[in-house]
């Protein structure tokens, strides 16, 4: 007699996936490697619980990290069970806790109709609390305190439980008191911020056994997605709810835990077996995304981490042979951008869809060189998870300062920077300036000069210093050039200091972008040429329906996949990040390696890793050495291109640098002068020559009639003689 056939939804699973779906009793950890079908396992397990009658829809608690993941799970479950998936407790941590908190709000001093503050309202309320306490908001900006409070809430710490070890010296050790005052003000307004949703529910479950028992009776099964990304308060909430039936299934990948900077604790997944006695572990190791060489390279790299539970990805596709991972060594970062551009063009000519091509960088400032290269080549692109380089707030502000420097009559630019950073010029002061400008028909800059005597002392002094500064910077521009002037202007105007004082998580990245901005100036002969270029770049319109290459940080790439992936900038100090190593030591190094693993496993068919012997970082040329991660790639899965071995040999000859003993190899430090010590570019090995026929995207075809380092004098067929940078022309013939 034939054995009964499994349902269709189980027949579609491989052996590992099916084991994870059918192991229903007791705690289960599903270690799901990249591309192994974790979403299919989660949704099928959910549907299996309902189809077999193990639970009603309302008896399963299913937790995701994004609303998109929750919607996708709901749709897939409905497709399997053949009817709308109604009555589910399915959603993000915060959405589920908000739903629970409505039922118990009075236990934390709220009513069920409490409102949830967004980030702007949260910041506004925090400023009010700080102002009432007499805190100097210029010295101690509110975003900094908000980050401290959020960190406490992510760790499940209420105001009265902040220990000395967890304390902060923010605002002269007043952070704990301000936290308590802020929480009291939230209760008075019958509001909660996002951090409160989980914090309040954890406190309720810990201090009210009858409430916890009620939720234990309700939830027979718990499903958790992306468990490696949970923070402590999320961990406490899950532990409390799982004490009932103990049927908790967590799906995650310890090798893809890359969010410690926003509170994620990899220890949550590593100690699962200790937290839940008798827990089973199922490893999903069949990858249906990438080729064997890509998986082999990723597995060999991540094996150097000691803080992992261990698994080895294997190819689940029949057509998974493919190309080896290419490691390309280049002379400098500009050649790197050209190399990527050329390979993308070649792939496009061969029929590659640009939507399936991605450039994944460690730091946001790296995208600028690739953005400009794509514009030069006419290749459309998108920056995923962020703005294009010249659209970012700090870059627009810096451009506005330079526009006023070049043209004081630029009212839009002057209005943008006149009170950035704050100079005490409120709405009344700005109205006075506009009235003078309108009545006398003069630019705002001149109106500001004439309005000075009538202003209050503080704004009069601050605005007077700004106007005097512009006079001084214009003299400097004629004497020392546009690069030194721009760096000095940003420092002396107080703009860079404003971001140095900002304690928000975004501030360091903004400072990095400003340094890259000054570095970009060095590629142009004068300020006018740079401003013209940026105007043309920002005018580059997006076609919403066209194919586009994607650029993003490695953090933003998690969960995505592409046919062709470029991983530039694999050098010590940049990747792994020296800042991360300085702050986190060995633990940070392992997270950086996990980030590299995530990058490699985004690729389906081709992965190209590149490093440069010379790189301009924050306006200065530095000699770079290849990342230790390149050395950790298994040779049998890697193809070295363009002399990467020679670059590695050169690095190996530097004692204590590439061999990483001690662990933290230091990259050459750049000067910290007020003007950021911008130096001349490194020589190009493929410099243009007189007589070379070239093409420029704006001016057309022409002949090179003079060469000055990277600057070319070109006689164009139709546009006459122009001086341009060599990076913006292409050789013909």
Structure description:
Strands 11, 12, 13, 14, 15, 16, 17 and 18 form an eight-stranded mixed beta sheet that branches. β2, α4 (67-81) and β3 form a beta-alpha-beta unit. This protein is α/β, with parallel strands linked by helices and 733 residues long. The N and C termini lie far apart (75 Å). It contains 30 helices and 23 strands. The protein has five domains: 22-92 and 216-284, P-loop containing nucleotide triphosphate hydrolases (Rossmann fold); 115-189, Arc Repressor Mutant, subunit A; 298-380 and 542-652, Rossmann fold, CATH 3.40.50; 403-535, PCRA, domain 4 (Orthogonal Bundle); 693-731, no CATH class. The protein is globular and about 80 Å long. Mean pLDDT is 85; it is low at 643-685. The protein is 45% helix and 16% strand.
> What share of the residues lie within helices?
40-55%
Quickly give the CATH architecture of the largest domain. Answer: 3-Layer(aba) Sandwich
Radius of gyration: 29 Å
Q: Indicate the structural class.
A: alpha/beta
CATH fold annotation of the largest domain: Rossmann fold
The number of helical elements comes to 30
Main sheet: strands, sense, barrel? 8 strands, mixed
Query: What does the average pLDDT come to?
Result: 85
Strand content: 15-25%
Low-confidence stretches: 643-685
What overall geometry do the principal axes of the alpha carbons give? globular
Number of strands: 23
Distance between the termini: 75 Å
CATH class descriptor of the largest domain: Alpha Beta
**CATH level-four homologous superfamily name of the largest domain:** P-loop containing nucleotide triphosphate hydrolases
Count structural domains: 5
């Amino acid at each position: 007699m034939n054995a009964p056939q499994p349902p269709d939804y189980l027949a579609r699973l491989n052996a590992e996936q099916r084991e994870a779906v059918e192991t229903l009793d007791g705690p289960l950890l599903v270690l799901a490697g990249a591309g192994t079908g974790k979403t299919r396992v989660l949704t099928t397990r959910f549907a299996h619980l309902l189809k077999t009658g193990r639970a009603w829809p309302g008896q399963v608690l299913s937790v995701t990290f994004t609303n998109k993941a929750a919607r996708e799970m709901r749709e897939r479950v409905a497709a399997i069970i053949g009817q709308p998936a109604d009555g589910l407790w399915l959603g993000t941590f915060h959405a589920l806790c908000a739903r629970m908190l409505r039922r118990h709000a009075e236990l934390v001093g709220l009513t069920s109709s409490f409102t949830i503050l967004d980030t702007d309202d949260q910041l506004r309320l925090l400023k009010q609390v700080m102002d009432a306490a007499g805190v100097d908001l210029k010295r101690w900006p509110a975003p900094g305190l908000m980050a401290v409070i959020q960190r406490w809430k992510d760790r499940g710490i209420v105001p009265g439980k902040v220990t000395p070890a967890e304390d902060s010296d923010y605002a002269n050790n007043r952070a704990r008191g301000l936290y308590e005052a802020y929480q009291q003000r939230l209760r008075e307004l019958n509001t909660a911020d996002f951090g409160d949703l989980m914090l309040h529910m954890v406190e309720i479950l810990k201090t009210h056994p009858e409430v916890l028992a009620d939720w234990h009776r309700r939830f027979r099964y718990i499903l958790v997605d992306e468990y490696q990304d949970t923070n402590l308060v999320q961990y406490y909430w899950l532990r409390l709810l799982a004490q009932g039936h103990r049927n908790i299934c967590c799906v995650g990948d310890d090798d893809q835990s890359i969010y410690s900077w926003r509170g994620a604790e990899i220890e949550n997944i590593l100690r699962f077996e200790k937290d839940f006695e008798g827990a089973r572990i199922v490893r999903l190791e069949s990858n249906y995304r990438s080729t064997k060489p890509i998986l082999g390279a990723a597995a060999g790299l991540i094996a150097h981490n000691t803080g992992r539970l261990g698994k080895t990805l294997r190819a689940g596709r029949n057509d998974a042979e493919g190309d080896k991972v290419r490691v390309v060594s280049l002379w400098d970062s500009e050649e790197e951008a050209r190399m990527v551009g050329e390979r993308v063009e070649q792939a496009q000519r061969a029929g590659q869809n640009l939507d399936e091509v991605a450039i994944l960088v460690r730091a946001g400032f790296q995208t600028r060189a690739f953005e400009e290269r794509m514009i030069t080549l006419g290749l459309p692109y998108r920056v995923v998870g962020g703005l294009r380089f010249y659209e970012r707030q700090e870059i627009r502000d810096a451009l506005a300062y330079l526009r006023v420097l070049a043209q004081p009559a630029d009212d839009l630019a002057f209005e943008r920077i006149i009170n950035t950073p704050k100079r005490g010029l409120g709405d009344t002061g700005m109205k006075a300036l506009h009235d003078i400008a309108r009545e006398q028909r003069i630019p705002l800059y001149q109106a500001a000069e004439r309005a000075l005597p009538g202003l209050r002392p503080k704004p009069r002094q601050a605005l007077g210093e700004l106007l005097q500064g512009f006079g001084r910077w214009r003299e400097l521009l004629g004497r020392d050039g546009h690069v030194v002037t721009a760096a000095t202007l940003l420092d002396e105007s107080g703009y860079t200091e404003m971001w140095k004082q900002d304690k928000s998580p975004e501030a360091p990245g903004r400072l990095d972008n400003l340094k890259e901005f000054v570095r970009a100036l060095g590629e142009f002969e004068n300020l006018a040429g740079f401003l013209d270029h940026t105007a043309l770049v920002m005018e580059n319109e997006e076609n919403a329906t066209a194919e586009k290459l994607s650029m993003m940080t490695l953090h933003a790439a998690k969960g995505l996949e592409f046919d062709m992936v470029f991983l530039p900038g694999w050098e010590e100090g940049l990747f792994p990040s020296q800042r991360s190593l300085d702050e986190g030591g060995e633990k940070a190094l392992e997270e950086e390696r996990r980030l590299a693993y995530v990058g490699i496993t985004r690729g389906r068919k081709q992965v190209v890793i590149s490093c440069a012997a010379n790189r301009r970082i924050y306006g200065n040329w530095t000699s770079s050495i290849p990342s230790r991660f390149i050395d950790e790639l298994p040779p049998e899965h890697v193809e070295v291109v363009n002399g990467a071995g020679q670059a590695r040999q050169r690095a190996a000859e530097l004692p204590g640098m590439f061999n990483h003993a001690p662990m933290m190899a230091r990259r050459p430090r750049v000067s910290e002068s007020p003007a950021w010590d911008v130096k001349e570019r490194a020589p190009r090995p493929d410099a243009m020559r007189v007589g070379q026929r070239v093409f420029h995207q704006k001016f057309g075809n022409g002949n090179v009639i003079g060469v000055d380092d990277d600057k070319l004098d070109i006689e164009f067929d139709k546009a006459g003689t122009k001086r341009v940078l060599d990076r913006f022309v292409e050789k013909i013939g």
